[in-house]
Amino acid sequence: MALILGIDPGSRKTGYGLISSLNNKLGYISSGTIRIPDTLALPERLKLIFQSVTELIEKHQPQEFAIEQIFMSRSAASALKLGQARGAAIVAAVQQGLPVEEYEARKIKQAVVGTGAADKIQIQHMVRSLLKLPAAPPEDASDALAVAICHAHTQANLIRMAGSRYSRGRLAH
Amino acid sequence: MALILGIDPGSRKTGYGLISSLNNKLGYISSGTIRIPDTLALPERLKLIFQSVTELIEKHQPQEFAIEQIFMSRSAASALKLGQARGAAIVAAVQQGLPVEEYEARKIKQAVVGTGAADKIQIQHMVRSLLKLPAAPPEDASDALAVAICHAHTQANLIRMAGSRYSRGRLAH
User: Fold this and answer.
1) How many beta-carbon pairs below 8 A join chains A and B?
2) pLDDT tens-digit map of A19-40
3) Which of A86, A145, A160, B81 has the fewest CB neighbours in a 10 Å radius?
4) What distance separates the 2 farthest-apart alpha carbons in chain B?
């Protein structure tokens, strides 16, 4: 069984979601939002993200870490803020020796909802359904769980593909 | 005497500069460039910045940390990359308990050259002159030394202002 930590980074709210994955069966472990007060100076904000992600890793001991890959942003100013938050979260993971995988938003939506054009409500609905939760988690937590689910599916597909190649004796050398 | 570490963050090259400051007298300690190979994946790139800055702090034990504040960028994509690099460097400093100060490019140029519209060559020339170096350090290292010099001047001015208020018996309560 693999434990996967998904992160949806943001400069004001960073979502996290922890799931287990075993033979393509998913289990919900934990999720939530790291809220970063506007009143803190930038260094303190980044420290809060770094330390919160470090604590999550130390507490739950995931083996894998998945984060949304970002290409676009509304503006250069928001991209800079997002980049700083994202940098703090990724450094926390690599410092703990976790492999980091990045997934495009389109790929996450495809993996969770079945279409790359899904909206936030559809993601929340499918995250709730796939993880058999009594209610949909808030948006940041749902987005973080979605990237973890995308990672689990991608890994399961890689293993299935490797297995089918092997069973047919066509393993690439 | 205060040791100041200045950082000029970048996603491909991150400059660093260490100076000492005592009674407004500056001394050169060390400077250089952390080169981040294009071949590394993003998590490894950010880890390299984080660990290199952490090693500089552990080796030289500066008491203060100064970094350029950025408002503008050519594009959202470059702002995101710069933000990630900047986030990794700032997290390294706050994790070591260092106070982090940010300075606008305009203010750094003003402090080092005397005009906010100075170009890179003028900065290199003045960094060389102020620190009595035999040659101008490369651009990234010069920019990092410049932000450290700006910090030293700002701190010296704050102390001078506080002192003059105190000596005139007009210390604000």
Assistant:
1) 112
2) 999 987 999 999 999 999 999 9
3) A160
4) 61
Task: Tell me the pTM.
Answer: 0.88
Distance from CA of A90 to the nearest CA of B (A): 6
d(CA A112, CA A109): 5
B2 in A contact zone (CB under 8 Å) = no
Predicted-assembly ipTM surpassing the 0.90 threshold: no
Strand pairing class (A25-35; B2-8): unpaired
Cβ contact A91–B42 (<8 Å): no
Chain B residues lying within 8 Å of A94, measured CB to CB = 43-44, 46-47, 50
d(CA A59, CA A5): 12
Report CB contact under 8 Å: B77, A79.
Answer: yes
Interface touch B79/A93, C-beta < 8 Å: no
For A149-172, what is each residue's pLDDT tens digit? 999 999 877 777 776 654 444 444
* Full strand arrangement of the beta sheet holding A25-35: A25-35, A13-22, A2-8, A64-69, A100-104
